[in-house]
Design goal:
The protein has 9 helices and no strands. With 208 residues, the protein is mainly α. The longest helix is centred in the C-terminal third of the chain and has 31 residues. It is globular and about 50 Å long.
């Protein structure tokens, strides 16, 4: 399975203004962008503008188009499923708006990790959380949780793609024909991976 299709799983080296920007600033911009689009964007036209802003930033960062598209392709099946469900319950315009808003948010998060090493992000999290240690916040544990979250997102998307590939290999072209056949393997893989991580953390004394 190609890691270039796994969201948040690849770093693209570069020396652009986006790459050189401090990780803290990029995290702040990402947070403001996601909150702004979620709260204020209510039409598909403005949602499309949001996607365009991310694409423009990716162009400034000189991210290879093929790599960026491959990164997004891992999340597309889930986004399409959500959009179809929303279309069924509401209407096509609202479904398209939500699809584009979620797409812009995921694309922005992918752009962050494409231009920032995960180790740098974790150091930034620790610096941001450091003052809270005075009031008893376990900074190391929180940073570890964030690290695991970032790492588990690509692993979970990878599991979805593996199940889809397995179904296609068995001659099943539709993932919606049987939600049980699609969902059960995902749940089982998620539980097994969670148990393995929990065992590894306990072995390292993280549960103390």
């Amino acid at each position: 399975f190609s890691t270039s299709r796994v969201p948040l799983g690849v770093y693209s080296p570069g020396n652009t203004v986006v790459h050189r920007a401090p990780a803290g600033i990029k995290l702040l911009v990402l947070t403001v962008f996601i909150l702004s689009t979620a709260i204020f964007v209510s039409t598909w036209q403005w949602a499309a503008v949001s996607v365009g802003m991310v694409v423009l930033t990716a162009a400034v960062a000189r991210i290879p188009a093929r790599l960026f598209v491959r990164q997004l392709s891992g999340a597309l099946p889930l986004l399409i499923f959500i959009a179809l469900m929303l279309w069924w319950r509401t209407d096509g315009e609202q479904a398209l708006t939500m699809f584009l808003v979620l797409l812009s948010a995921i694309a922005a998060a992918i752009l962050l990790t494409l231009t920032t090493r995960v180790s740098v992000l974790m150091e930034t999290f620790e610096r941001i959380l450091a003052p809270t240690a005075r009031i008893g916040v376990p900074v190391d544990q929180v940073a570890l949780a964030m690290t695991l979250t970032i790492r588990l997102i690509p692993l979970q998307v990878q599991a979805v793609n593996e199940v889809l590939d397995a179904r296609r290999a068995r001659g099943s072209r539709s993932t919606s024909a049987s939600l049980t056949a699609f969902g059960v393997p995902i749940v089982v893989r998620t539980i097994l991976r969670s148990r393995a991580i929990a065992d590894a953390l306990r072995a390292r004394g993280a549960a103390d």
